[in-house]
Design brief:
The chain is of the alpha/beta class and about 350 residues long. It has one domain: Alpha-Beta Barrel (TIM Barrel). It is about 40% helix and about 15% strand. The chain contains 12 helices and 11 strands. Strands 1, 2, 3, 4, 5, 6, 7, 8, 9, 10 and 11 form an 11-stranded mixed sheet that branches. It binds iron/sulfur cluster (SF4). The site of iron/sulfur cluster has 12 residues, from loops.
Length: about 350
């Protein structure tokens, strides 16, 4: 492909114009579109809005398992037979202690994740108190992932100081019935609208590799653009025994990187986060994801260890990116600090992001 093709991708994105569906399809599937110039074109967009900074996020699975929903990809679904740690909402002191560790570890954002269809009014009030406590004690951004919520609940959480609500679209409207039967794409959209109607910033993303077509991924990327979400986690599906989703096609590092580039071109100002499955699917190409994406979780999702956190940090630094912590640009974290991080993250041990 001629260099003008790649230049045009960057220029179109920076001009705020939409790439055609045909062009998006080309990015994902045309072997004439070479990966390195494509990554460079996406990096030009990323660099314009995020320079060479990387935001690192830490997850806390505050409530795990026993979910009444049947999301076919999820180990916490009522239909999953995977052996996982199941626990109801952790005590407040534990959630606060983990917020402190996240802050001290230099994380930009602390993400509280709960399994379940959505919180009861009593739970919303409890979460609001927790958010107030965290925000009063630590200058760290707080994001909450709690399933479906309505406008009154969103209002209470916003008033408590919540910075961002996570609620992923996961896949396109037409593909949605194939991955879940207990709620609809429309339910998910209603939650995002409720959050936006009270002024809450939204984090909403996608899971790649659940048997969808390229056109589904393109539709989701364009929908997220229309919604002007602040942050887009791009997850790569990890087939796990015991979940309903089986026989999904395997992903290649090349394809995963193309998806990240596509999401960057279509959402130039949004944080694009390379999320679950990055280690497994990107393998030796993992570091390349930092060219389209400006954000990642500090460690993986399945029984992640501090060692993994240290490796992630080293990878970010080795590639010449700068870690953005607590809303400020830090100097390059030193290895020693990486070791501190390692120790603290061994205590945190987040397990799995809920894609609520
Ligand atoms: S993704 Fe969330 S809502 Fe769906 S089954 Fe898992 S925990 Fe429940």
């Amino acid at each position: 492909m001629k260099s003008t093709f790649y230049h045009k991708l960057t220029a179109t994105s920076l001009d705020g114009e939409l790439l055609s569906d045909a062009c998006c399809e080309k990015i994902l599937s045309d072997s004439e579109v070479e990966l390195l110039p494509l990554l460079d074109a996406a990096y030009q967009v990323r660099k314009t809005y995020f320079q060479n900074r990387v935001q690192l996020h830490i997850l806390n699975n505050a409530q795990n398992g026993s979910c009444p929903e049947d999301c076919h990809y999820c180990v916490q679904a009522k239909t999953a037979t995977t052996d996982i740690d199941t626990y109801s909402l952790k005590p407040e002191y534990e959630i606060l202690a983990e917020a402190e560790r996240a802050y001290q570890s230099g994380a930009y954002r602390y993400c509280i994740v709960m399994s379940g269809r959505g919180p009861s009014p009593k739970r919303v009030a409890q979460l609001a108190r927790l958010i107030q406590e965290v925000k009063a004690q630590y200058p760290i951004e707080v994001c909450l992932s709690v399933g479906l919520i309505d406008e009154p609940a969103a209002h209470i959480l916003k008033e408590a100081g919540l910075d961002r609500l996570n609620h992923n679209l996961n896949t396109s409207e037409s593909h949605y019935p194939k991955i879940c039967s207990t709620h609809t794409y429309g339910d998910r959209m209603a939650t995002l609208h409720a959050a936006q109607s009270v002024g809450l910033a939204c984090c909403s993303g996608v899971i790649v590799g659940m048997g969808e077509e390229n056109s589904d991924l393109i539709r989701v990327a364009k929908e997220l653009r229309r919604l002007e979400v602040a942050s887009i986690p791009v997850n790569f599906f990890l087939p796990i025994d015991g979940t309903q989703l089986k026989n999904t096609p395997s992903l290649t590092p090349d394809y995963c990187l193309r998806v990240l580039c596509l999401y960057r071109f279509l959402n130039p100002r949004a944080e694009v986060r390379v999320a679950a499955g990055r280690e497994h699917h990107l393998r030796g190409m993992e570091v390349m994801s930092l060219y389209p994406a400006n954000s990642m979780f500090l460690e993986g999702y399945l029984n992640a260890t501090g060692k993994e956190a240290s490796r992630t940090l080293q990878m970010v630094q080795d590639a010449g990116f700068i870690v953005e912590t607590n809303g400020e640009i830090s100097a390059q974290l030193q290895t020693e600090q990486g070791n501190v991080l390692l120790k603290e993250l061994e205590v945190l041990r987040p397990r799995m992001e809920c894609n609520s």
